[in-house]
Amino acid sequence: MCNRYVSPEEAAIEREWSVGSRNPIRWWDEVLFPRGTGAFIRRARDDAGYSRELVTGQWGLIPWFAKEAKLAYQTNNARSEELAAKASFKLPWARGQRCIIPADSFDEPYWGPYDAQFKKCEWWRFRRADGRPWGLAGLWNTWTDKTTGEVHESYTMLTINADGHPLMGRMHKNELDPKTKEPLPLEQQDKRSVIPIELADVDTWLAGTQQEVAALLRVPPVKIFNAGPAS
């Protein structure tokens, strides 16, 4: 799961994803943590055809049934395999409320070889090898506070199983068998990865059918990563 990423500058987002230049000056956090304010790109809601718009909202999707904007549980990550069934995400998924989350880099904890004590981890930073920003798969939702009438935009970052991946499969703690205290078999670890959407696939991700976007829910190849310990 990803709990920290760095947002690109506004001009870089505009260049990379062609979202226009009518946006006001930057109004979101540079370094994002859960429940922070971040930027995301979605299909424009007021365009009967197709165009993209840059939006800001809470990193942590607020579902329709929420009583308040600040939830007691985290919704900044969503398992892609559970989108159709998970209460918090199934409606945005069914409605095609997909978005692109721009990121210069994101961080994940590397625990190294198995250590029974799990004394500490080493934080790794992940950038693209080609120097371009990441465009990470996400879902968005608009929620209205029934008490105040205030409208809240929010989003979540999708993840996918990465067991066996040469890089992402090495992140996060190993899950242990409760009886033996040894690491569970790899197929039971459920290591996770974010899901990059390449530029050529952005239109499909934002406006395609469920069948079309299902093909984009895949673990990224190692060659696109520039990863190592964060300084």
Automatic annotation (TrEMBL):
Keyword Lyase set for record: yes
GO molecular function: lyase activity; peptidase activity; single-stranded DNA binding
The UniProt record lists the keyword Protease: yes
Keyword annotations from UniProtKB, A to Z: Covalent protein-DNA linkage, DNA damage, DNA-binding, Hydrolase, Lyase, Protease
EC category: hydrolase
InterPro entries, alphabetized: SRAP, SRAP-like
Ranges that cross the membrane: none
Pfam families: SRAP
Top-rank lineage group of the source organism: Bacteria
EC id: 3.4.-.-
GO biological process entries: protein-DNA covalent cross-linking repair; proteolysis
UniProt-listed Gene3D superfamilies: SOS response associated peptidase-like (3.90.1680.10)
Protein family according to the UniProt entry: Belongs to the SOS response-associated peptidase family.
Protein name: Abasic site processing protein
Annotated source species: Acidovorax kalamii
